[in-house]
Amino acid sequence: MKSEQFHLNEVERRNKEIYLSEKNKELYTAPMSYEEYYRLVSTNTQIEDLRAFYRDTTKNGTGLTIVPNKIYAQTNIFLALHGRYSYPILHNHDFVELIYVLKGSCTNFINGKAIIMNTGDFCFMAPSTVHAMLAVNDNDVIFNVLLHEDSFTQYFPHILTRRDRIGNFFKNISVANNATPYLLFKTKGNEKIMNRMVQSFHEFTDKNLFFEDLIGAYVNEIFIELSRCFTPETLIENSEKNAAAFIHPILNFIKVNYNTVTLKGLSDIFSYSEAYLSKLIKKNTGQNFKQIVEIARLEEAKYLMQNTDYTLTEISQKVGYFDSSHMNKNFVKLVGLPPNKWLKQSKNEI
């Protein structure tokens, strides 16, 4: 592959400057939700603004589940280099993502755990798995391969009948909709896999006649090589943890949309039944859906009380209460003090 293809592009160079500045470096230490990123971009014009991209490419424009769209709609196989020095924003997909580290390393935040991927590591990400990627060195070269479900039978006709972990991974996605969240293979720089990945990237960028068919053949060859040589080193994450990993984006979504969110709407966005979603929220927070919404409403009221000149009546209306007496009642119930006394106390503590 031509070395110039690995040079930092303009966006990466700009993001690198932000990363190297002391006040922004800490933002790269942990993944952030789309809502957190949205607020960050709103107050910092230096940061690359991807809000339009997430609105266009995610389910219902919520910034979480990336779906086939005008960017990915022209092909069932999509390849790209992962952007270096970009913020690790939590997301998932409704397609399979393959991640391959050609050079350097990266951090893959999966289900609340930071997994370091080094040269030669090959990771399969199931559609529902929430994760975020971080690569903060010039020599980090990471390929992302996106496989829509239609590609399973189109380019890998025998994948669903294979009796290995990769075959089971795709079978559970296609048939049972209950795939292992991720598979990670340590290939230690296997040359066959490396060459096929580089060739696949060339095919996708050049887009010559039948390029998708050839990429499919290369990727299929990689799958076979992985199954033959590296299955014993596969790492499998428990699927129960994957559901729990959704709690962070779920809570952030409620926090931002407390005035309009409903349990049914939330279940549609995150593709869970209302009953299961209620159980998931209760299990991970100790509170039910209505309590979480109420807490989000009061947190916004606190913010407005401390940072604006609105009256309590105006604030109560802005956060969705019928009147200030209703807000006062819930404030005492959850905070232990009426709003005016809480505000006075908070000012004394500063």
UniProtKB/TrEMBL annotation:
Keywords: DNA-binding, Transcription, Transcription regulation. It comes from the Bacteria. PROSITE patterns: HTH_ARAC_FAMILY_2. SMART domains: HTH_ARAC. SUPFAM superfamilies: Homeodomain-like, Regulatory protein AraC. Gene3D superfamilies: Homeodomain-like, Jelly Rolls. Residues 248-345 form the HTH araC/xylS-type domain. This is AraC-type DNA-binding protein. It comes from Trichococcus ilyis.
